Amino acid sequence: MKAxxxxxxxxxxxxxxxxxxxxxxxxxxxxxxxxxxxxxxxIKGTYRGTSTDGKGKxxxxxxxxxxxxxxxxxxxxxxxxxxxxxASVIRLAERPTLLKTITIEGQExxxxxxxxxxxxxxxxxxxxxxxxxxxxxxxQKVNLSRARAENLxxxxxxxxxIKxxxxxxxxxxxxxxxxxxxxxxxxxFNQRNYTVMYYLTAPELMSLLTNFYARKANKN
Length: 220
Prior knowledge:
Layout: H1 2-19, E1 20-29, E2 40-43, E3 49-51, E4 57-63, E5 67-71, E6 78-81, E7 88-92, H2 117-126, H3 136-153, H4 155-162, H5 165-175, H6 179-193, H7 202-219
Parallel strand pairs: 1-7
Antiparallel strand pairs: 1-4, 2-3, 2-5, 5-6
């Protein structure tokens, strides 16, 4: 009996190993694009997983039919199907926290406010969760398509603000900011302008960003 069982187990282990591969990515804050360390990355339905390192990077052995669950205190938990997975940047959004009512004196005026309301409404309409009657494969394809569209939508912002070191160095030098101050203002900028900044051209985005830093730096 043992002689018959051993080849079967060996075949099962080889088949399992062939379906597994290393899935890698970087997890960042959706508003500031700052890397998020110690994010839990678990394969759904198992106890296998890992966590991101100090630079937000992770690697985990998984199969294409698996789904990753990413969770972090203070952030929304997300599920990512690994069908057609490609190494990419994964953005986690902060979980809204109900605060006491405060009174704000004065309000900054954004020339682009309301300009993209129609686009944002359409984006929300087309990015609702897939219908429950979709099969697993179709849901995975829909979610992947939406993830790619989300990354494409943010591409100008990533190129101008994240991947261009000159943006950061020039603003820090011009306003005599520390790195911590730079990222604090950037987080405010993202929270204030998230409904418009992904629709702007590179010059428009840079103009909005530099004006925002000028106002904030002068107040400080």
